[in-house]
Design goal:
There is one protein chain. The chain has 294 residues and is of the alpha/beta class. It has a single domain, classed as Thiamin diphosphate (ThDP)-binding fold, Pyr/PP domains (Rossmann fold), CATH 3.40.50.970. It has helices at 22-34, 46-49, 71-84, 98-103, 106-115, 165-171, 185-196, 211-214, 221-230, 255-259, 270-292; strands at 38-43, 63-66, 91-97, 120-125, 176-181, 202-207, 237-240, 243-246. The chain has an eight-stranded mixed β-sheet with strand order 2-1-3-4-6-5-7-8, with helices on both faces. Strand 1, helix 2 and strand 2 (63-66) form a beta-alpha-beta unit. The chain starts with 21 loop residues before the first helix and ends with a helix. The structure holds thiamine diphosphate. Residues 44-46, 68, 97-100, 126, 128-132, 137 line the site of thiamine diphosphate.
Length: 294
């Protein structure tokens, strides 16, 4: 297969992200696929500080800072304003964290998708409120330690399961929905290109591992992102106008390989890890059924 990652760089060196930040790679690959005619709207999140302080900015495309809850509303307005100016060829991209998407921004996202604006909403999923100090979000998986689910003597890890926003978007029949991760940039870029071919709202959830909040060493970000897919903790799929396609990893590994690579899960017992494996297996068979039923 020919190398398909565009050479264009719309993210300059000099950003202020932590070493090994998966969200930084998510933005870099997203912009490579989007191209120069792109406007990005970013709410309060790590990406609100990663571009650097004024007058410096690491992005070579216009960027709007938007209130935490308002990414969906912001991209709706940007789209309509650009269309009125005859700039239909500009991509309007909301680029928000999982807290800003699964929790506080969910109604705004859902409204924008329902109104049918021709926009992209990218949720970079680092599974916690990382910018403010690693608090749990609705998208934090079962079993994770965060600063609001600290282990302590009560073993107070997150007891609820991950809220999967891509599933909510499919339930809402958004015309284009996909999951992706930074270990597979060609898959991510192909999905953005497929999304571009769909006129209407598009939602992509990108798993973006976070060494600071998942408690692992920064050089392991790509490896952990790959393990998320191979362990099926984070399945990759695409849903285009009602047609669902699931990517089957060429190599599969038990969830313990993914869990044991990060200290946020280091307190889990064998039984708790087995519970996670069972849950992952159940979801995988549900996704396989979804593909068959299409
Ligand atoms: C209304 C409102 N509440 C709280 C905050 C404080 N705040 C800023 S960023 C942030 C966390 C964002 O988490 P997430 O969306 O997951 O993105 P990440 O930081 O992980 O990149 C919070 C709570 C805010 N800016 N506005």
């Amino acid at each position: 297969m020919p190398f398909s990652i565009p050479k264009v760089e719309l993210m300059e060196p000099g950003h202020t992200a932590c070493h090994g930040c998966g969200a930084t790679l998510a933005m870099r690959f997203t912009l490579k696929a989007m191209g120069k005619n792109t406007v990005v709207s970013v709410p309060a999140c790590c990406w609100a500080v990663i571009p650097g302080a004024m007058p410096n900015r690491t992005l070579d495309v216009p960027m709007v800072y938007t209130p935490f809850a308002a990414t969906g509303a912001s991209i709706s307005g940007l789209r309509e304003a650009l269309d009125l100016q005859g700039k239909e060829d500009y991509n309007v991209v909301g680029f928000a964290g999982d807290g800003g998407t699964a929790d506080i921004g969910l109604q705004s996202l859902s409204g924008a998708m329902e109104r049918g604006h021709n926009v992209f909403y990218i949720m970079y999923d680092n599974e916690g409120y990382m910018n403010t100090g690693v608090q749990r979000s609705g998208s934090t998986p079962f079993g994770a330690e965060t600063t609001t689910t600290p282990i302590g003597k009560d073993r107070n890890f997150k007891k609820q399961k991950k809220k999967i926003v891509a599933d909510l978007m499919i339930a809402q029949k958004v015309p284009y929905v996909a999951t992706a991760t930074i270990a597979y940039p060609e898959d991510l870029i192909r999905k953005i290109n497929n999304a571009k071919a769909v006129h209407g709202p598009k939602f992509i959830q990108i798993l973006a591992p976070c060494p600071t909040g998942w408690y692992y060493s920064p050089e392991k970000t790509v490896e952990i992102s790959r393990l998320a897919v191979q362990s099926r903790m984070f399945p990759l799929f695409e849903y285009v106008n009602g047609k669902f396609t699931l990517s089957k990893p060429s190599k599969t590994v038990p969830v313990t390989e993914y869990l044991d690579a990060q200290n946020r899960f280091s307190h889990l017992s064998t039984e708790e890890k087995e519970e996670i494996q069972k849950d992952v297996d159940g979801r995988w068979s549900d996704l396989m059924k979804m593909e068959k039923n299409d």
